[in-house]
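Dear support,

I submitted the protein below through the web form. The confirmation email said the job was done, but the results page showed an empty box. After a refresh the structure appeared. I'm attaching both so you can tell me whether what I see now is the final result or a partial one.
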Amino acid sequence: MSLQEGQGVLKFKVDENLPAEASEVLCRAGHDAVTVLDQSMGGATDGRLADLCRAEGRVRVTLDLDFSNIQAYPPSEYAGIIVLRLPHQDKAQVLKSVAMLIPYLSQEPLIGHLWIMDERKIRIRA
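What the results page shows now:
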């Protein structure tokens, strides 16, 4: 379901491998975003964080390529998963990429989907 279909505000969990400011970018766009560290979950296993995202109905935003494995993390079981595949993972590039996601949140389905974003495009898998 996209925002155009009545989703409204999306809830995000920003992984600890992203700058904390990434949650601020999402919040400024009108969404609810918390970081893994905000919830004192630093160092938690991928499985624990996945379970927490599912329970909270939060979209996971991460650089962790493990989350692009749809066998291990079937997109249909989550509010959404966004994996950033960036050749340069410096703070400026990551924040730029998160900001580039914003317009797509109202145009493309996220719930139950995996988005894999590189510096040129977003691939969406169900």
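Response: this is the final, complete result; the empty box was a page-load delay. The CA atoms of residues 24 and 33 lie 7 Å apart.
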